[in-house]
Design goal:
This protein has one domain: ABC transporter involved in vitamin B12 uptake, BtuC, CATH 1.10.3470. 76% of the residues lie in helices and 0% in strands. The longest helix has 35 residues. The protein is globular. It starts with a helix and ends in a 7-residue tail after the last helix.
Length: 370
Amino acid sequence: METVDTGRASAETEARRRGAEVLEDPSAAPRRPGPDPARRRRLRVLALALGIALVLLVALASLLVGAKSVGPHAAWDALAGRPGTADARFVRAMRLPRTGLGLAAGGALGLAGALMQALTRNPLADPGILGVNAGAAAAVVVAIGFAGLTTFTGYVWFALAGAAAVTGLVHLIGAAGAGGATPARLVLAGTAVAAALTALTSTVLLMRPDVFDAFRFWTVGSLAGRDAGTLWQVLPFLAAGVLLAGVSAGPLDVMAIGDEGAAALGARVRVTRLLVVVAVTLLCGAVTAAVGPVAFVGLAVPHLARAVAGPDHRWIFAHATVLGALLLLGADVLGRAVARPAELEVGIVTAFLGAPALIALTRRPRRRRS
């Protein structure tokens, strides 16, 4: 406790000293007043409410649009649980689980991306950087080639186990040596393990063409063909990941100043880092298991969330969850609409939408800090 108090006093002294230097420097530019906290809070709430409204509209479109168009009455009967017409039964059996899985998967990927970028303090970090996607893909190849599984409900458990095992291995490698599992070590370990697993997966696919035929439908990233059972299988893992993300939001705000400064202010850096790694594994692993690897959602969405929410990670996580759900489900609806009566897989559409958005964000001029 004495060490924490000493560190806090040193940090406050350094801050006062720097402030005094700025005041004494006649060449320093005058500081403009910061934004009103109440106004910023109102903007955050308004943006979040607008995002939720857009998600509801896209969800409605997801129930109505596809190779077979249905009317609003059929969608309402399906939502209300009434027997209704054949269209209502079709919506309840096919469109409703697909819509729910799209919302859950998109929100989880957006939240996982925000967690990963906050942990590594790297705006280009992606949930797959810990090897989660590579571990899930390797496990799916094993499930198809050696366990004889051919259904998505069978893939889910293998993919989840593979994602969890690889994340644990990456954390053990990153934690070896002095200093523990720093963000840089985790990134390097995840990249190395992912490269090795990708090579292993490619080898098996080249040697077993029958495995490749089944694997290619999973690896493109799609919501098609998933039933309500797949959604219910992954929901507990997603709920646990969201809970861990909420617990980690406050400590991540403190860790933004650096590990040493955060530790001096009383933050439990290693515990927070471990919680974030577990949360990313649960969120990204469950989604990858259910729908396959989907690109750009976890990379692009946190940038949009930070632009709206500011530096507070509680707001960033909330906006990233809503925007992720909006992007993924919107991409799925767009893929069904533009290629009717066929459809473009959601992983392809998110790549087309996410790449230009990310380029626009990187080319946007940064605001000068006042």
